[in-house]
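Running log. JK asked me to keep both predictions on one page so they can be read side by side. First protein, sequence followed by its tokens:
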Amino acid sequence: MSVFTHPGRHRVAVLVRHGLLPFELGIAHRLFGRAVSADGEPLYEVVTCALVPGEVRTDSDVTMNVAHGPEALAEADTVLVPAANEPDAPQTEGRLDAPLTGAFARIRPGARIASICTGAFVLAAAGLLDGRRATTHWQEADRFRELFPAVALDPDVLYADEGEVLTSAGDAAGIDLILHIIRRDHGAAVAGEVARASVVAPHRDGGQAQFIRRPVPERRGGSTGAARAWALTRLDRPLTLRELAERESMSVRTFSRRFRDEVGMTPVQWLTQRRLERARQLLEESDLPVDRIAADAGFGTAASLRQHLHTALGVSPSAYRATFRGSAARP
């Protein structure tokens, strides 16, 4: 007897494991469930399945009663693997355990497979990501690289589309991924209606980089420490290497070499990162116009700030501010 009951609809099986994040399961049902044709007919049928039917623990104080087992995977056109907050073999050892191996063996050839957040560990452990570009939550990027060196990990994007295999970053990036799948299957108009009904953006600019705080490592003391402390109080001013070197009574060449040894980057790179941090803080916490923020952060002009922010994070100042302060913030 078929698990899916609506012939003609695209069949989506969501494979959940113990430690499930209910949010990720919810967005799959909600977003795919809201995709309809011009005649109002649902375009997808979504079924939840587990390695063993029955109770599945979540990362909260509720459990899920899942009626279907891995047999649903054999019928699915798309298999979606959310994250699990309980460590298992893919996340700790980089391999599939026996139940997951059996489940993946049921997936029919040609089916599309996608993951949300650390669900990418499962896809990688199954060998589906070798030689492919993929992403996962930025906090898990180092461990992912250690376990799966054959995968071209890009921790800065919200999702990665490799055709039949797709991966997404943290929880909310699952929304971006599912809207992308709907857009790919049925066009921007259908995906846009789903986004509007769900009160989410149909497309978000940039990637994970804009959500990652990357404070520049500071070493206490050191032969360039005084110059760095001095520069931090003058980020709005044009600072030259000669000025910084003079603070330490060094030649530019000696200062540059010692700075790199102590900080791990050139003085220019360090200044740029510090200025970006300052600009991000002002975009998040103030209503100052972009040209004023550019001046206060030491970029001089709004155009220069836009260029540096886009290079570092893939977004414009106004898009960054809207992400963190909402559309009512002053552009």
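And the second, directly underneath as requested:
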Amino acid sequence: MPQEQPKAPASRAGRNLPAALAVGLGLGLSLIAILLFVPKVFIGVAGVGVGVAMWEVTKRLREADVLVPRIPLLVGGQAVFWLGWPWGASGVLGAFAATALTCMVWRLFDHGLSTAPRNFLRDTAIAIFTLSWIPLLAAFSTLLLLEPDGNLRVLTFMILVVCSDVGGYVAGVLFGRHPMVPAISPKKSWEGFCGSLVFSVIGGLLTVTLLLEANSMIGVVLGVGLVVVATLGDLIESQIKRELGIKDMGTLLPGHGGIMDRLDSMLPSAFVSWLVLSALI
């Protein structure tokens, strides 16, 4: 009989930990190099990530018989993300409104003029939700990059999200006893949330002081805010995957799942980082 192949070691989170660490480290170092030396390239890299994430989500939705208009979402999602570069928030808002309207009309007539669409309200609502969830929130990373010292601002928010992830994982594995929202994400604990807060606040103090040369208390505000929205972003995706009956949105990143499985906490964090840093610095 053929010998059974040894399985890759998995963490308590159910992931291949060595693969996850290798992929995460490689992505992190690459993005740091881009932001420090060729910051505008970050827009292109993030745009590709948004496109792949939109493909993953729309594919999963259509597999569940949610017939979101895929072509308008993919094309319009890129417009929402990219038009922030030349035209700022006005470009993002205009592209979002145009894409939302296009999705409504596309879904209304995608079965022809003689057949009424089925589940029109559900499918268009989910399409606009997807448009808001991925490219609209991602566009704030572009707006953040275009601010003074924007590359350092983007680097700051990304470091804090990593601090939140690492702190939550370490504290959750070592001390996790009390589930936070067991009906949505059984492995997420209050101890892990506290670990995220500690790591992220420390990271916020250091990055805002050393990288942005701003008041350290802004780092505390940003650190706490990002832990809250990063956790909520993770829970939102967990509930969506639960309703779709899947574990991951994709398989592109070993140990992580798909691109969307890495962006779930980054997306709302980009918006909150833009809001806090634009208002306070």
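Observation for JK regarding the second prediction: DSSP finds ten helices and two strands in the chain.
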